[in-house]
Amino acid sequence: MKLPNKNKIRDHFIFISMALLLAFLISGCNDDTVGLSVSSTSVKSLEASDSHIVSSGNPMPPVPPESKFMTLSSGAGTGISVVGESTISVKPDIAILDIGVETFAESVALARQFAAKEMGSVISALKKQGVDDSDIQTSRLNISPSYDYEEIMVRGKRTGRQVLTGYFVNNVVKVRIRELEKAGEVIDRTASAGGDSIRINGISFTVDDLSPYKVLLRKGAVEDSLVKANHYAAESGVTLGPLISLSETSSPAIQSFQKDMAFGMRAMSESMPTSVSGGELDIHHSIQATFAIN
């Protein structure tokens, strides 16, 4: 048998040794490569003296000391915040009447014609009672079909269907009556002018000018906020500081109600004068105030 050449044996040995060395180096690099995942919500701080992070062979610069912590600061919730409220009761000087007419006819044209005639009589009666044109405003105008229901037989089965009978027209106006003592008389005479087509939906009351009351309402709201804030400070064992902010949460507004006119209509049907009483109205105002804590 012919023995292998010594040179060839040496070459194979060198080749195998280099291959093992290369495999070892590659394995070592893989072990030293570490994946880095940084979450902004989980990292609380980074020290400037920390080791540099190596990426693509280039070291990252150290984090400057001033960026080690992120601090959120907000003025919201600082101090004592309260709602100051003020309410005063006043006599109304205006009545607002919701009044209209309702007519019915087989066609839209006829229903509109009847409604226009009746509303004309209503407006004329209002003007004769001293109501100005500027105090009469149309608030609603509706035209709607009317149906009856009838039973019919279809293929031996009883069923029903709608049958058009005509059209309703509703024309409604809001009327400002500035002389409250005449409100009942205005209602009676206007209702007579409208006849059976008249519809009175209700009456409400208001104040024509709120300006004289706004100063009192604002003063009362500020005083109320101071009382509440001092109370909270005393109960909490702290000293109330100066006012930080103040804003209006609601402008002066009338807390009114609409009176049902069912009784008035019954009185008219019995030839009795309609009685209208304005009573009192509450005007409300509120603010939001925040005070510092010393």
Description:
- With about 290 residues, the protein is an alpha+beta fold.
- The protein is about 30% helix and about 35% strand.
- The protein contains five helices and nine strands, in the order αββββαββαβαβαβ.
- It has helices spanning about 5-30, 110-130, 185-195, 210-235, 260-270; strands spanning about 55, 60, 80-90, 95-105, 135-155, 155-175, 200-205, 240-255, 280-294.
- A hairpin with a 2-residue loop joins strand 1 (about 55) and strand 2.
- Helix 2 (about 110-130) packs antiparallel against helix 3.
- The radius of gyration is 43 Å and the shape is flat.
- It starts with 5 loop residues before the first helix and ends with a strand.
- Mean pLDDT is about 80; it is low at about 30-75 and about 260-270.
Topology (elements, then pairings):
Elements lengths: L5 H27 L21 E2 L2 E2 L20 E11 L3 E12 L2 H21 L7 E19 L2 E21 L5 H12 L3 E9 L4 H26 L3 E16 L6 H8 L11 E13 L1
Strands of the widest sheet, in order across it, are 5-6-4-7
Q: What would you say the CATH architecture of the domain at 95-207 is?
A: 2-Layer Sandwich
* CATH superfamily membership of the domain at 95-207: Protein of unknown function (DUF541), domain 2
Mean pLDDT: 79
**Shape annotation:** flat
- Tally of extended strands? 9
Can you tell me the CATH class of the domain at 95-207?
Alpha Beta
What fraction of residues sit in β-strands? 35-45%
